[in-house]
Design a protein that fits this description.
Distance between the termini: 18 Å
Strand order of the largest sheet: 5-4-12-7-8-9
Structural class: alpha+beta
Helix content: 40-55%
Radius of gyration: 40 Å
Strand content: 15-25%
Shape: elongated
Number of strands: 15
Amino acid sequence: HNAPSGSNDLPQTGFVQQADGSDRLGDLDIDKLLLIVRKNIVWIAIILFLPLAIAFLYIRYTKPLYQSSSILKLNIKNNAGVLGLKGVEESTWGSLILNNLSGEIELIKSKLIYDKVIDNINYDVSYYAYGTFLYDERYKIAPFKVEYEIKSQAFYNKKFDVDILDNDEFRLTYYLGEKPVSNTYKFAQKIENKDFIFTLYKTDFLSEGDAVKGKSLVASFIKNILTWIGIGTNGNNSGYFFKVNSKAALTNYLAKNLSVEILNVNANTIKISLKDYNRAKAQDFVNAIDSVYLKQTIENKNKTSKQTIAFIDDQLVLTEVKLQKYELKLERFLRENKTANVQTVFSKFVEKMEGLEKQRLELKIQALLLYDLINIIKSNQDVSQFIPSLSLPSGSRLIQLTEELNKLQEERNLLLSSNKESTFVVKKKDIRIENLKKNVIKQIGLNKEMLEEQIEEYNNKISSTEKVILSLPSKETEYTRIKRFYDLYEKFYLLLMGKRAEFGIAKAGTIPEFVILAPANFSDTPISPNKMMAYMIGISIGLFFCIALIAGI
């Protein structure tokens, strides 16, 4: 068309300008658009194909990343009634649950758990197979295994290339600085130098194809090109390589790839996940973490029982010695006097004396335990083990203070796993612990004063009763005294035996305070790369540039 006089020339595109001369797009000229597409079909095809090809190459040559997860449910009980706390608000209880879950997460992610997982998983040597562009970890399916002894720390986490020549020989290659060292050895041959000792053994996964892995002309050409541009394998056509992992490297691996999160606060569940390029490896590590956490939970629960049993065992030895002493005296008295008859008049005094002696002995034991508790607090030991042994009323101020002190000490130990003692957060925790210690020792002093007053009262009562007994005939009194102490230590010995059996049963029946709702899964679908997303992005970019090309013509 010819443009009217004084107007701008209309652009020759597939869009028609509005009659009023505005910049708004008019009706689409289909014929014009098809003509443009036919003339530029090659460029349009290239623009559409190129992003899809890039997406395909990205998916093809990006190692798939997998994630294995397990779900744990913690058994958190409300002990407010035991501590004498009534009417705990729901919001406060929810906050306590959140704190408990957070504490368990910190325990799982602590160096304590990491070290035990590393010891249990038996992953000190990693095996890999070279590909054309990428390498793949041969977790539990390597064609050889390595027995080693590292003499120089520099050879931890170092790559050792293994070129399998045939069913009996291989070539080992590694670098000393920039200098390559390569030698041929036989399987099961001991390789020893000043830096390390290696012995390589064949496994059931070794096949004839391993001897020619990476030997094709195409593979060699590609590897040489990659080496020339600086991203290859240093010109080594080896089919495999291995690394001896240091404990620090494995700890960093766990810290980097492990995630622990609260799944549901109301259900008390947490999720343990680990990412890795090998599905089986990720699953095994998560299972190992669950197993170690299970053992650590049981160990923590058994710690108090073990310490209490040890204390009871000591008391049993002392009581047995005293019981044997009075047993011998009783036998000697019966042998010399040939009688064991005691008049009824003595029965009420004997019964009274036995009750007084037993109660005074229990008070003395409590006083001794308070002395021991002071020493334990001053030496920064765990105070929770002695709480069951103290005969204190439920909700006692001393019980509350010692439980709070023990909790602060546990928090300090967790901080030390990732902080130095000189750091501010540790020093701040130390100040709180020292202040609380003073309050605990002060409370212990008050309890000691009360016990000493009670012991003095029983001393007076026992003294009065003894005066009455001493006024009786000497033989009957002697027999009564011997029999009284014999019965007293016998009952105390049986009591200790019963307590020891109770704690032994509790220790044997200890169960973890969590349940594995979902064990570690073997993931079939990688979390990265996302194939659908990559192709969608490629298609979107291609369409965008195609539309831009058509609109610009």
